[in-house]
Hints:
The protein is an alpha/beta fold and 405 residues long.
Amino acid sequence: MLYQFHEWQRTAMAPVRLAAEAQQQILRHPFNPLAYLYAGRAAAAALDVFEQTVRPRGKPAFGFETAAVAGRSRPVREEILGRMPFCQLKHFQRPGAGRDPRVLVVAPLSCHFATLLRGTVEALIPDHDVYITDWRDARQVTLAKGPFDLDDYVDAVIDFLHLLGPDTHVIAVCQPAVPVLAAVALMSEREDPAVPRSMTLMGGPIDTRRNPTVPNKLATSRDLGWFERHAVNRVPMPYPGFLRRVYPGFLQLSGFMTMNLERHVDAHVKLYHNLIKGDGDGVAAHQRFYEEYLSVMDLPAEYYLQTVKTVFQDHALPRGRLTHRGHKVDPGAITRTALLTVEGELDDISGLGQTEAAHALCRGLPKAKRGHHVQAGVGHYGVFNGRRWRTEIAPKVKAFIAKHG
């Protein structure tokens, strides 16, 4: 019923939001004398903050139109190469990209859409032929399409690598580090010709026993039944996925925001003052971040629950107990795929050392095919987005791909 109450609240707030939007436009109209008074600007700013906070958001667009390649602007066009019920493979096509290293970016299947990695993709496009897993909101997938769990996730990674063919490089950001490592291990054991040239794992929960964070501790503080009772809901009408069991995106978003509540409150207070001052740059920066951050999607319940148990409670991968459809996953079988791990010094989602743990598991890799980087002064988001990603982390990832191409 929680999901239904959330939808009722959203529907009930719609006329209030529209009224606030209309009122703030009236207060800012150049023919309104209040627009030139501090009281009028303050009232309009308060209404604007309220409207932006409660506004419903859909799936954002990547929005790439051009890319600077060797100092020249080149057009970028999005195309869909493969479709599955819960995911599609998106290609950022540009002239000459076919001669560059082919890179599959595996986005996290979390409460945010793949567009959260817009900055990641933007830094890679000029030098690589880039593809990304574009996950679908589970509430948009009908029950007739069946369930989706962690095993299906591994299968999707393998299928996409087969579609792209040999000599592909794969980058897993956050949560997909585990299924990507499992997929590469299975392909290596089978001597699959499409096994990737390199695998970059960024801020991923390979072994959450190392430096456990608040989300890690929460996952182990309750049994799986608690998560099923309190976190899993059925999709209400009128969505296509009506009655599908999901972990709602708004629940996960509320958890993330609670972890850093003071920071988010401060950001909105700053937005309020910037609106009063007319600081367009500050307002635009806030809106760009929160338009993405507040756009959330639902996860299939099967995938969510299996991930909680397998990755965060049982620590199946680092303990050598992870299986895929009954077959044991052995990262030691990886001998040809070079491994780079990237961590953030201040990561409060995947603690320091959790991603590096992949090296101990990939015991068959020689030293020449290994790399590890800890970025000072960045948290989880800064590992794959922002200035440090563009200027310090991305060059190292690109150099590693070039070395093992």
